[in-house]
């Protein structure tokens, strides 16, 4: 399951989020409500995926180096938005 999720995440983080949502309960355990994963799906898919994975890999919370990975995912999301804005010009 981990290899499939990694390949899906490289192709599309949204596709990986859907696969994780359908095949596991990681999103339900990582987030308290359904609202944050839905918002993350549309606005910050890399960040949502990274937080859920780091929450699962760690001690059922995100601490230390795991926040570094989440911040890198956030920067990747910002880069996607910045790249698409530059491409439209």
If you had to describe this structure to a student in words, what would you say it looks like?
- The protein has one domain.
- The termini are far apart.
- With 89 residues, it is mainly α.
- The protein is globular.
- It is built from six helices and no strands.
Notable features of this structure?
globular, mainly alpha, 6 helices, 89 residues
Flag low-confidence runs.
Answer: none
What is the number of E strands? 0
What is the percent of helical residues? over 70%
* End-to-end separation: 40 Å
Work out the helix count.
6
In percent terms, what proportion of residues is strand? Answer: under 5%
Give the H and E element order: HHHHHH
Count of discrete structural domains: 1
- Rough shape? globular
Using only C-alpha atoms, the radius of gyration works out to 13 Å
Secondary-structure-derived class:
mainly alpha
Mean pLDDT: 85
Largest sheet, in brief, is:
none
What's the helix and strand layout?
Blueprint: H1 2-11, H2 13-23, H3 26-30, H4 35-43, H5 45-57, H6 65-88
Question: What is this structure, in a nutshell?
Answer:
By secondary structure, this protein is mostly helical. The protein has 6 helices and no strands.
């Amino acid at each position: 399951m981990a290899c499939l999720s990694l390949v899906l995440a490289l192709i599309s983080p949204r596709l990986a989020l859907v696969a994780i949502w359908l095949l596991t309960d990681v999103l339900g355990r990582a987030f308290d409500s359904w609202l944050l994963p839905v918002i993350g799906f549309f606005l910050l898919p890399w960040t949502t995926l990274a937080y859920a994975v780091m929450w699962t890999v760690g001690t059922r919370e995100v601490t230390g180096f795991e926040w570094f990975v989440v911040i890198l995912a956030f920067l990747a999301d910002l880069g996607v938005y910045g790249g698409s804005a530059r491409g439209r010009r």
